[in-house]
Amino acid sequence: xxxxxxxxxxxxxxxxxxxxxxxxxxxxxxxxxxxxYDYAPFDFEDAMDSYERVLQxxxxxxxxxxxxxxxxxxHEGPVCKDGRVTYAPGTKANLDAVTKAGLMGVAMPRRYGGxxxxxxxxxxxxxxxxxxxxxxxxLWGLQDCAETLYEFGNxxxxxxxxxxxxxGETMSMDLTEPDAGSDLQSVMLKATYDEQNGCWRLNxxxxxxxxxxxxxxxxxxxxxxxxxDGRGLSMFIYDKRDGGVNVxxxxxxxxxxxxxxxxLVFKNAKAELCGDRKLGLIKYVMALMNGARLGIAAQSVxxxxxxxxxxxxxxxxxRQFGKAIIEFPAVYEILSLMKAKLDASRSLLYETTRFVxxxxxxxxxxxxxxxxxxxxxxxxxxSKLADSFTPLAKGLGSEFANQNAYDCxxxxxxxxxMKDYACERIYxxxxxxxxxxxxxxxxxxxxxxxxxxxxxxxxxxxxxxxxVDESLRSLKDRLALLTGKYAEAVAHVTDAKDQExxxxxxxxxxxxxxxxxxxxxxxxxxxVSPDMFRDSAFVFTRYVEGEVEKNYSYVMGITSEDLAxxxx
Length: 568
Known about the structure:
By secondary structure, this protein is α+β, with helices and mostly antiparallel strands. The protein is built from 18 helices and 11 strands.
């Protein structure tokens, strides 16, 4: 029987990273839940065994149900009638399968009906679901909204809503509007307080809302009359049971067709405030978006895996000139680079996820007791690392997903252009990953400050201090040379004190930092599991050399005259 977890040993490699012991220790609070819940682990080994067993269940569902339904869902898609959305039959079957398996509250605490998993195994589940069907991941993965509700809602709200999510109800985050896409501070959906009924009322339109006819919505709305910026926005919870919101239409999209992207009309819809007024964008949406971006990084890795699997299977099967095309250098060069990009993306994803797990667990503990000075330092360190690595994981991972989907079709040749092969769907699904939850350009905006403050360079130096296998030392030395060029390019831009130069070179500098970091992570992986990662470490380091040299030449050679030609 097929199983996406068992056939991807890289996942188990990352699940058993040394930092997981500390993550589980913090998440389980000395395993106190064992006295209340019979499925709670009683020690670290039991917790890891639980993650393994659940990931195997998810891997089986992905292979036998979600992946099998993917093509049908892509062709049929959801439909909208009388203001309501009906999922494709395959989507309904997928939701039924994950709900019956108890997988709709993976990361939520047990007291609300969840499994209390850290983000590492949760992102592994997202990785596998995305490989099976990227569109379905958008429905299942919106459990991230429950994390926001858990983090910022009050206990009454948590008790009323989170158990419903764990039982199989769905969520959406209603942020964007026709005139407010990336610029969320321009949101104008109006929230007014209804004194007579003691509730808030929402009026206006939301657009591009993933799973917009969900059961429970987190809605960004303007609560402060007369304001026009982010300080006038608050976060609200809307329950579909209360009515007042209709789906005007489902967008006709290029890809991820199983995931209904909706335009919503709010007409005096009853809602309740989540958290404090005026912090909707400034605090809550920023936290929500960071979680969503990590989810898209996992989705990107899953799509990359799907593209690579389709490409290598076709290359082994397709024969030309008397032999399988995988034997031609022009083909196996592409496949090797696809695998290297996939492995590099996955390594960065789980490094980032470990950072997120560490700081979030400590944040949660801080709600119960005062952190020790050592814990506060730990929380501060991992929070900064998570903030700096998330835009890299999302931005670079999604770009690699698009590149791998492109190369997958190239390997298929003319057949890849036909709907007879899954690579055509994968190619369309991949395209959105570098756009939604913040485009690659916005990830650069988020990441560039960690270039100019030296945060990325400091982390690279920390990786340089790590031991690697003797056979990999030459790669480490080559990366050290590239790091010197990266540092020189950063100094060149920062010393110039020219904002236009800074902005034009930002993506080049962020890519240089990200590629070097990914290469170091692959060296660490190859040291622990050489059979799994050694080839990718060599191939990716060679790729990084070319990319860093190219970006270095661009940054060091650009002139004021060149800049003038970029202006429009």
